[in-house]
Amino acid sequence: MAKTQLNVRVDETTAEAARQRALQRGMSVNRYIEELVKQDAGEVGRTFVEAAADFMKQYESVFAEEFGEFGTGEDAGKGASTGKGKGTGREGKR
After folding, report:
1. What is the DSSP letter of 88?
2. Count of CB atoms within 10 A of residue 93's CB?
3. pTM greater than 0.70
């Protein structure tokens, strides 16, 4: 992706904080600011959710084998309570 230059004016305390945080993370100040903006815009969270959905799809059969089939619609999420799957032995206990 092409990069665009963005000039930002901040007070010296903020600039030094950005430099220190970037240094602690082993990245440039530019990269640090870019990551902050992406987090604020929700891109990082969206990427995580997409990766988690891909993971679940890829390992769906493994989870079904271990914990039982989970239906869709009204029965969604009730697989463990219907006796399917192994459970943890702690269901219903406090």
Report:
1. -
2. 6
3. no
